Amino acid sequence: MGLLDILLGRTKPALPDLDQLFGLPSAAVTLEAAAGFRPTGQGAVCFATVEGAAFEQAHREVQALLDADADRSGPPVELSQDAYGYSWLLSRRTPDQLPELVNDLHAVNSAMEVNGFGPQLLCSLAGFRDDADRRLALVYLYKRGTFYPFAPLPGGAQRRDNALELRVKAALGDDLRIEQDLSRWFPVWGAPGL
User: Fold this and answer.
1) CA atoms within 13 A on the CB side of 40
2) Could you read off the pLDDT of 62-110 as tens digits, one per residue?
3) What secondary structure letter does DSSP report for 178?
4) Which domain of life is it from (predicted)?
């Protein structure tokens, strides 16, 4: 960053820190104690879809790596596309396998980065539910290196439980690097893994 950047108030963007994902298992313990939410065993990585053979090869390598895991429960890793044209790679584990799910999410992000597709990575999320069947996702923003909670309200309407999200933010402040700019808490309606 140069002198002109300092004078004009520009700052360097935060660099992605994929190791932040490894804070999810300890945050899950805090989340259960503070709000009663437990892991669902589902998580996903979202990225901008790219056309081309190199991207297809990277995707096949990532999927083969995750599908080869002998401890995987349920169906293999699934690729889907949402209504906005973004791709989601969904990984399923049992609810008690959150550390393995985090390894899956980290492996996908790392493989995309290594193959030159880091700029296409948008976010990763891990899903949680409580006894009242409320859903919650802890969303990792790749380009910011931070997390935020996303809690859609039940009923199909695209509304979120802002009060719950703020309570989760307060509860997890010591466990995860929480995104402080609330305008960056983007809704991930219909995200796989949620």
Assistant:
1) 22
2) 777 777 765 655 566 788 888 888 989 999 999 999 999 999 999 889 8
3) B
4) Bacteria
Domain ranges across the chain: 33-184
Q: Considering only CA atoms, which of 187, 185, 186, 193 is closest in space to residue 80?
A: 193
Q: Which of 124, 141, 134 is nearest to 167 (CA)?
A: 134
Total residue length of the chain = 194
Q: Which two tokens stand for residue 166?
A: 């703020």
Handedness of CA 119, 1, 140, 99 (dihedral sign): positive
- The pLDDT assigned to 55 comes to 76
Provide the mean pLDDT of the chain. Answer: 87
At residue 75, the pLDDT reads 64
- How far apart are the C-alpha atoms of 133 and 142, rounded to whole Å? 28
Residue in the structure block whose two tokens are 């004009």: 8
129 DSSP assignment: E
Q: For the chain, how are helix, strand and coil distributed in percent, rounded to 5?
A: 35, 25, 40
Would you give the DSSP letter of residue 158? S
How far is residue 76 from each of residues 13, 26, 79, 125, 161, measured CA to CA in Å?
A: 35, 26, 10, 18, 31
CA distance 155 to 142: 29
Write down the residue that tokens 């985090």 correspond to.
102
Phi, psi for residue 42 in degrees, rounded to 5: -115, 140
What are residue 127's phi and psi, to 5 degrees?
A: -90, 150
